[in-house]
Fold this protein.
Amino acid sequence: MRLKIKNLIINFGLLLIIIETLTPIYFMIKYSISDRDSIITGGDVIPLWPYHPTFMVYKYLLSSPKFIDVFLNSVKVAGFTLLFALMLGVPMAYGLSKIKSVYRDFLLVFLMSIRVFPDIVSVIPITEFFIKLNLDNTILGVSLAHTLLALPYVIFILLADFEKVPPEIELQAYNLGASKTTTFLKIIMPMVIPSIIVSSIYIFILSWDEFIFSYFILGYGEIETLPVYLNKMLSFQPPQNILMGVAVLLSLPVFVFVLLIQKRLLINIKEGALKE
């Protein structure tokens, strides 16, 4: 009897989580394909589904040169951030895993320092520094700022996996004539691929959705990312269907990226299980 009640509570909790997760997605999609009569009802109850679903909002956005330009800017920023964070984070995590002194803790605290303070506090000195380097209002500047935000988490995620690699494996590779570079790229790296994939998901989502650093570094220049563009749209109070259309297109690449890279993660986990 107790087991049944426990299962009911668990299932009910899972149902609430599913409803809470899917409700915003439902409203985003519903309003993005709503016709005018389904939004402005003249006092009548707003329908649960549009009277005449239409994809005119998506046609309008995807045919807008401004929106396409902003979308591509976000893709570039997320791509560069992913590249920079992994290029710096992977070797740094590997190097830190080899340090067995108290100095490593100081290094880790230093790396986490940018995440200790709220973004609104950290963004001011970083923006001032980037302005002096002429990196404000540039794709590179925003990408480097996002890299600073993502790097501590990437290092901490990868550090745990690098520490699990038995040192005997590296010694055997060296004894067989493999160089340090070959050992790292062909033996150590494949063993931490799942953590690299998890880090990649985090980096992409962080960069794609990040607003504060993008807003301050880009200022009121010509370059915009999707969160900055959406914020600017809100100031003009556009129709709900256009806002929801932008929100759907903002969410879609994240969903596709996570889906594709998660598939690769599952493949690696299965391959690891078979090897064991």
